[in-house]
Amino acid sequence: MAVTWTRAWWRWTGGPTTRPVERVVRVDGRSRADEPDDERQAFGRWVRKRPRVDGGKRRGDGCGRRSLSPTWVLAVGGPQSAGRGGRVGGVDRDASRLAGLQRRLQGIAGGLAVYDEAPDNVSSSTYSSTPSLPGCRVAPGRRADAGLPLARVTSNRIDVEALAAMDGVGRFREVLPMLMDPVAFAEAFVSGDAAGGCRVPSRGMERHRATLRSCGVASDARSRPAFAMKAFTTPKKDGRTARLVLDARPLNDAMRRPPSMDLPRLRDFIAEVERHRFAMQCDGVSYFYQFPVDASISRYFGIGMKGCDMLLNVLCMGWSWAPCIAQRASNVLVRDLGLAWVDNFLVLGGTLDEAERNVAVFRKRAQAARVEVRAEGDDALWQVRSRFVCVGVEFDLAAETQRHRLDPAWAERWVDGSGMTAVLSGRATARQFAEVFGGAVWATDILAVPRCHFAALLSFAGRLGGRMVGAAAPVWDEVVDVPPSARRELGALRKIVRENPWVVGGVPEDTGSVLWTDASSRAWAALLEAEGRFVDGRQGVFAGPDADAHINLKEMLAFAEGVVRLCWAPGAQRCRIDNAAVVGAVVKGSSSSYAANRVLSRSLRVAERRRIVLCPGWVPSGEQQADPYTRGASLPRFPAPLSASR
Of the ranges 52-66, 318-332, 628-642, which one carries the lowest mean pLDDT score? Predict the structure, then answer.
């Protein structure tokens, strides 16, 4: 870290006078855009610095525009120590203070300013705590994870060829060339030109160079990489270390989309787990870093760094193909044994003996492919359990009926987080809302709460997301006003998550009846079939605003009328609809239309009160029994034979 001496001016907050400070430390490597204003904070005091404007081209700027000098200014001493030791600011009073300052600079990772205390005239709410620096504060606007050291990662490398030999269905072998074959990698580019390239410099990543090199994650580039991209760090769950992520959007934009990950849907994942009684859980150690990348391909995974660029030698977190490769590899390890969720492995068994046999087979596969795994949390490795937390879900397979709920630790963080407080207050940044809304989607999926009950929240999220996607440069720190209706619905969901009730799996007994619903441009009809005949039915004509509604909404209205008017018996109610959009909305519990969500919410609340589980299915229009009664035919006298609809 380059440390130089320069001159600045004190601005004493206690009065209008200014006092000169002889020496100020300047730490190079920070861009002017990161500094909030011309007044710099340093160890609990204020410093006024005149920005120096450089003409000409700096490395990494990409053009010759005039730019502000990338400096960060820290002041030594304070107004209360002025005059001590015969020097203004007391800088030379004790030489050990300079040594202490240099030690303190080691905690200023990549330009992160660390303070002993907040200035008296600055609200403490503008500071965020730094987990790795207890008792210290971070300058407003700084990334709280910028000071975290990079977590040590494994140097183990998976034998991908041995793993491919175990692939009985060929899904992993299909994507393996993206790691090993430069020709196949080049063919994945949309334009066919794999050498277009770019260079985007990273900020403050030079300090991680030794860690990346020692773990074999990256090596110094001997020539210019095809793509040298921006790297950054994000905090790990322990809050004390960070993980490396590459902003691979330039590379992703140049390549075609990856195939399906083969990741199971969350509801299917939960349902499969609850069909068993025992499970063993483990996860891959630095899983993405265990996948080696051929040297001829690593030149596409460059990290733009000051001084010398680096090349990733392992699977790149941030590359669009990486999750697909990792998930398909995990599926090979757990095939016919359990489930995998990227780097989480779950080996299942209906009995204890079956679970232990499956664990033994999984261990052999992991050893043959040289996959390094570890136990999740405080569990012992290879331990079979009936109650555990996996992918944010707490499972209880030992209960009389298998059940699940949200991970209590995650639920507490989401309910009481600062983002939730800001959104419920009505004014929050787009980033805060996105984080809270993402948690809401996760919570509703796990707790089996239909998202159509939160139509206003979904509508606002859709509008905000559309604005961000359409913007040339999305401003995620922009403050947005959250509508009261969306806040009320979020508050209701927050109450459910705080209670975190257990959800019992399984499907109730079938009611023995089938609900047929259909709609045309002017009318709707619903029939209830039981014991091979029609036992009840309703029909009507659309009037008012509904008469001009989209056909999908009319089909949803017909479905809602059928549920409310005809379905009374508790249990699993089969429904037959010839509109795929309505079937999908009922299955998911939500629609992309605000009006459809309101209608669906009404029908699902009625079904819940009557203890009915709706099981929709699609049928061709030619087989829809209710179709004739939407086109002018009158309902028959009930009960009526099935041939009455023909």
Answer: 52-66
Residues 6+ apart with CB under 8 A from 553: 546, 593, 595, 596, 599
Tens of pLDDT along 356-399? Answer: 999 999 999 999 999 999 987 666 889 999 999 999 999 999 87
Task: Indicate the SS3 state at residue 581.
Answer: helix
In this structure, the number of other CB atoms found within 10 A of the CB of residue 405 comes to: 18
Cα–Cα nearest to 109, from 169, 75, 149: 149
Residue 48 has pLDDT above 90, yes or no: no
Q: How many CB atoms lie within 10 A of CB 277?
A: 17
- Angle value at C-alpha 317, between 314 and 318, nearest 5 degrees: 135
User: Are the CB atoms for 202 and 303 separated by under 8 Å?
Assistant: yes
Diameter over CA atoms, the chain:
108
Residue 150 · residue 244 · CB < 8 Å:
yes
Beta-bridge partners for 427 = 481
Distance of CA 597 to the CA centre of its chain: 24
Structure token digits, residue 575: 């429904």
Whether the CB-CB separation of 444 and 437 falls below 8 Å is answered with: no
Residues 6+ apart with CB under 8 A from 512: 530, 531, 569
DSSP letters along 107-165, please? Answer: TSGGG--EESS--TTS-GGG-EE-TTSTT-EE-TT--TTTTSPBPP-------HHHHHH
- 481: region left, alpha or beta (phi > 0 left; psi from -120 to 50 alpha): beta
Distances (CA, A) of 307 to 201, 204, 206, 207, 365: 10, 12, 8, 12, 43
**What is the model's pLDDT at position 206?**
83
Tokens representing residue 277 in the block: 């009684």
Q: Does residue 320 contact residue 249 with C-beta atoms inside 8 Å?
A: no
- pTM for the model stands at 0.71
**SS3 (DSSP) at 423:** helix
